[in-house]
Amino acid sequence: MERASVTHCTDRLFKVLVIGDVGVGKSSIILRYVNRRFNETYKASIGVDFALKTIEFDAKTVVRLQFWDIGGQERFRKMSRVYYKGAMGAVVVFDITNSSTLEAASEWKRDLDSKVCLDSGRPVPAVLLANKCDMTGRDGDAASSSLDGFCKDNRFTGWFESSAKDNINIDEAGAFLVKQMMLCDTGLFDGERRWDGIKVSRALGESQSQSLCCWGPRL
Q1: Which of 61, 66, 109, 211 would disulfide-bridge 57, Cβ 3.0–4.6 Å?
Q2: For residues 49 and 68, what is the distance between their CA atoms, to the nearest angstrom?
Q3: What is the Cβ-side half-sphere exposure of residue 43, based on CA atoms within 13 angstroms?
Q4: Greatest extent of the chain over all pairs of C-alpha atoms, in Å
Q5: Which tens digit of pLDDT belongs to each residue from 181-218?
Q6: Cα distance from N-terminal residue to C-terminal residue, the chain
């Protein structure tokens, strides 16, 4: 009698930091991504909140994501070395309607890079989310060009316009970051990065899947 084939499943656990100033929507993004819902009531995170999500990366790989939602108040940034330890990826969030939170995002990224890195010495993959895009009517092309340069200057892996309220690019950004962390974890990440700018505009009434604004490495 033939033996039944055994499928070996790889289990990966990634600690993901979610950082940015107070009120940019970090907790709402996690709630949308993990629990598929949005809460209209705003409540600032105090210290660190945690959330877990398990996804099937492929037929043989299960990825468990441990989100660390770090309060944006200045006093918590001073404790960031403890919070950042062991992180394999990060989501840096700013409010697209508040330019000061974009300036703060570069400070959060510098703080991140100074306190945690991959075993290779490279920065951990970090995705920038331009959140609350449902609330803005600015020139999208001009914003994309500006954010492309911002990401290159600050060594972000990629960026997306997002809305936790309208569920725009939340899953897409999550999938992108997981892929980058998997590439780093398996040693397949190319040592020499070549960068492209990618923008897919969304006309009124088009589907959510076409709202992607992503800048990232050519793999």
Answers
A1: 61
A2: 6
A3: 8
A4: 69
A5: 999 987 654 443 333 333 333 333 333 333 344 444 43
A6: 45
